[in-house]
Design brief:
By secondary structure, the chain is an alpha/beta fold. It has 13 helices and 18 strands. Strands 1, 2, 3, 4, 5, 16, 17 and 18 form an eight-stranded mixed beta sheet that branches.
């Protein structure tokens, strides 16, 4: 394995923010300092770049197995590397679902060689049907990192309570998709002014708020943790904030499209702006930013959900979901860092430290002896999102045509350069 040194780079993690050299050898960070004397096999001038720990996205769909025409392990990995993401947690709604040890083991055995760190969520219930709990002991032995019925939330409150209790006994985090499908009842976008103008059935925000409140109540009653997925409403954000103040073990995530875009985008009748939960109102966007600023939001994720172009072609019939791995950092820098709202250290905390902490994974950051999983970012680079240039098999991005400021340039995993933008292509 060749040694690698990045010279004169701004290094940012939870514990540092300064200019230094970073020397990597045998897959680890061997030294951090000023003007390191050792010469590496590969030397990179990091002037004007920012080194961060490789990001961790705890909510992605790689569609593998079962729907690999949308995405697969290889294309999902390529998208992650381009976006500066070196670790992901995959959701379990595959075909077959991740409700048994054999399916989990088969996927993780393939994922072990894909070039990033892939973790898998197991199902809360058998076949994600919400009727009986899956075998958590078998799933844990097979290697799952968390449990969820993401995309098909557990409707039975008593069963969800037992799931949370049994998961907590085993030390497995539960991540909950908070939507009442009976309330949604076929709605396809946020219920409100825009759905009325378009003449389409809306998704009442009560669907999210009610299940968020239920999960918080169950966590409080049983003194167990719960993680709330992809928060999109002011009501849910306020409920999580109050629960945290009361000492409830609740954490949450949101995605860039929820703190940057509103449901007015749907006036274009473009299904690439449809996802679950849906884009909401300007007040909800404000609530997401408030939650980020006051610490209610723990993590920024993507809910990367690829769908093929022909599936997204019909606005009414298209499945919900958008890709996000290649735009998440850039969008976050654009909306939060370049507006002066959030520091780079806080962004690293939300996109690296907190998700790993919630999932009980180590988060050494940029430190001597740590794994050499780093990204080099040009925080000032402006670029226009061209869906056709994304590395994902699917191009259903909600940021199509937008100018973002900040772009990942190099992704290093285990001391090996796995991705380089055009400017640094010679290092591959």
């Amino acid at each position: 394995m060749r040694s690698l040194c990045i010279r004169n780079v701004r290094a940012v993690d939870a514990n540092r923010d300064g200019i230094c050299d970073i020397f990597m050898q045998e897959g680890r960070i061997a030294a951090i300092g000023t003007a390191i004397a050792a010469t590496a096999d590969i030397e990179i001038d990091g002037t004007g770049l920012t080194a961060m720990p490789g990001l961790f996205d705890m909510h992605v769909h790689f569609r593998d197995p079962g729907q690999t025409h949308k995405e697969d392990l290889q294309s999902g990995t390529a998208a992650a590397l381009a976006g500066g993401v070196t670790g992901v947690l995959c959701m379990p709604n595959t075909a077959p679902p991740m409700d048994n040890a054999d399916t989990v083991r088969e996927f993780l055995s393939r994922a072990a060689h894909c070039g990033i760190h892939v973790y898998q969520t197991g199902c809360l219930t058998q076949n994600m049907q919400g009727k009986a709990l899956a075998d958590y002991d078998a799933l844990q032995t097979a290697g799952v990192t968390a449990l969820s019925d993401d995309g098909k939330p557990v409707a039975d409150t008593a069963l969800m309570e037992q799931a949370m209790i049994q998961a907590a006994e085993r030390g497995i985090p539960v991540v909950s998709h908070c939507e009442d499908l009976n309330i949604i009842n076929g709605g396809i976008i946020n219920q409100g002014e825009i759905s009325v103008r378009l003449g389409v059935k809306g998704m009442d925000r009560t669907s999210e708020d009610s299940i968020t409140a239920r999960e918080i109540a169950l966590a409080k009653k049983n003194h167990v943790p719960i993680h709330i997925c992809h928060v999109s409403t002011r009501g849910s954000m306020d409920a999580i904030r109050r629960a945290k103040a009361e000492g409830v073990a609740v954490t949450c995530e949101t995605a860039p499209h929820y703190f940057m875009l509103t449901d007015e985008k749907l006036l274009s009748r473009d299904a690439n702006y449809r996802m679950n939960p849906p884009l909401r109102t300007a007040d909800d966007v404000k609530a997401m930013i408030e939650g980020i600023l006051d610490g209610t939001v723990d993590c920024i994720i993507t809910d990367h959900a690829p769908h093929a172009p022909h599936e997204k072609a019909d606005f009414i019939k298209a499945p919900n979901g958008v890709v996000g791995l290649e735009t998440s950092l850039a969008a976050t820098l654009t909306a939060l860092y370049h507006t002066g709202l959030v520091s780079l250290q806080r962004i690293v905390a939300m996109m690296y430290n907190r998700p790993r902490s919630i999932l009980h994974l180590p988060a050494a950051g940029i430190a001597e002896g740590a794994d050499a999983d780093l990204i080099l970012v040009d925080t000032e680079k402006e670029w226009v999102v061209d869906p056709t240039k994304l590395h994902s098999k699917s191009h259903n991005t909600a940021f199509q045509g937008m100018t973002l400021k900040g772009k990942n340039q190099i992704t290093i995993v285990g001391g090996v350069i796995r991705y380089a933008d055009d400017r640094f292509a010679a290092y591959l």
